[in-house]
Specification:
It contains 12 helices and 13 strands. It is an alpha/beta fold. The chain has a single domain, classed as Alpha-Beta Complex (Inosine-uridine Nucleoside N-ribohydrolase, Chain A). The strands form 3 sheets. A 9-stranded mixed β-sheet has the order 4-3-2-1-5-6-7-13-10, sandwiched between helices. The protein has a two-stranded antiparallel ribbon with strand order 8-9. Strands 11-12 form a two-stranded antiparallel sheet. Helix 5 packs across helix 7. The longest helix has 19 residues. The mean pLDDT is about 95. The structure holds alpha-D-ribofuranose and calcium ion (CA).
Length: about 325
């Protein structure tokens, strides 16, 4: 058996980040989670850190170090996603388990990223499930940061111009377009992108989901409590399926065959468009003459993903 992949997970723990962390920690045979780095995104950085500790506690994995990162985008103010994840980012569940915030490491997340890639050059897969602020700052502190990564897996952006936060942009890229621009241009390691459209088009049926949420385990009960707020939002919007973007992105890392089709292209983030700010512009027709910088997952085996989702709650 190959040794587990070394991963660092960068999160803005909301509900789907929480699910992705549960999945990652459910497979120590496949993933060695070196650290979880937090960044402002779905909710403010304090709630992101608190929520991350709550998830680690439910998984009995408070030994995984959690680092606090950037509290704001590189420029301006990004949107938040409290309308979907709840004010606290975890579905505003009454009387959640308390956590000890002293467990947050004193080292800044970006400095931890720099230290770990120097400790394990070429070995770490950086899983980015949030705005890319921490990673962009790491590139400004060490221009070779990305070259010391094995690869990046990014949940974010879009490949057909469809947005979930604006008509044209996905949340993580719209939250910090400048950071996304810097990372796509300068990271210098392979990028596997899980775009919004792939997540939106490959959800789980409500029948399967409702059965999944009845899983009678500690992790199952925790998940069932934190998803109710966002499920209410999806159902009031008459969404035909349940989708969890970060969870799907993590599924690819555990089982690469979950991705049944990928496409490669040059992509760049629009930063100044009055209505397209944050959109990932994909040069599908290769008219820009730029080197390919992105491999995007464009088709998925939902069945293979479900196998992982069922097992993660046991
Ligand atoms: O667009 C979905 C992404 O934005 C997910 O990572 C979700 O957690 C939010 O960060
Ligand atoms: Ca996220």
């Amino acid at each position: 058996m190959p040794s587990p992949q070394k991963v660092i997970i960068d999160v803005d723990t909301g509900v789907d980040d929480a699910q992705a962390i549960i999945l990652a920690l459910s497979r120590p045979d496949v993933l060695d989670v070196l650290a979880v780095t937090c960044v402002q995104g779905n909710v403010d950085i304090t709630n992101v850190c608190r929520n991350t500790l709550r998830v680690l506690s439910v998984c009995d994995r408070l030994n995984v170090p959690v680092y606090k990162g950037c509290e704001k985008p590189l420029t301006g103010e990004g949107p938040d996603a409290t309308h979907y994840h709840g004010r606290d980012g975890m579905g505003d569940v009454a009387n959640p388990e308390p956590v000890d915030m002293n467990l947050i490491q004193s080292e800044h997340a970006t400095l931890a990223l720099l230290r770990l890639v120097n400790q394990y050059p070429g070995e770490i897969t950086l899983v980015a499930l949030a705005p890319l602020t921490n990673i962009a700052v790491a590139l400004r502190l060490d221009p070779d940061f990305g070259k010391k990564l094995k690869e990046m897996v990014i949940m974010g952006g879009n490949v057909q111009g469809k947005g979930n936060t604006s008509p044209a942009a996905e949340f993580n890229f719209r939250s910090d377009p400048e950071a996304a621009h810097v990372v796509l241009k300068e990271i210098g390691c392979p990028i596997l992108l899980v775009p919004w459209e792939t997540c939106a088009d490959n959800g789980q049926s409500w029948t399967w989901t409702e059965n999944w949420l009845k899983t009678d385990t500690r992790k199952g009960h925790f998940q069932n409590s934190i998803v109710q707020y966002s499920i209410g939002r999806l159902k009031s919007a008459n969404r035909s399926h349940y989708r969890s973007c970060d969870l799907l992105a993590m599924a690819f890392i555990i089982d690469r065959s979950v991705a049944t089709e990928t496409e490669e292209f040059y992509g760049e983030v629009e930063m100044s468009g009055s209505i397209t700010r944050g959109q990932l512009v994909c040069d599908w027709r290769k008219v820009m003459g730029r080197k390919v910088n992105i491999k995007a997952v464009t088709a998925v085996s939902v069945e293979k993903a479900r196998v992982l989702y069922d097992a993660m709650l046991l």
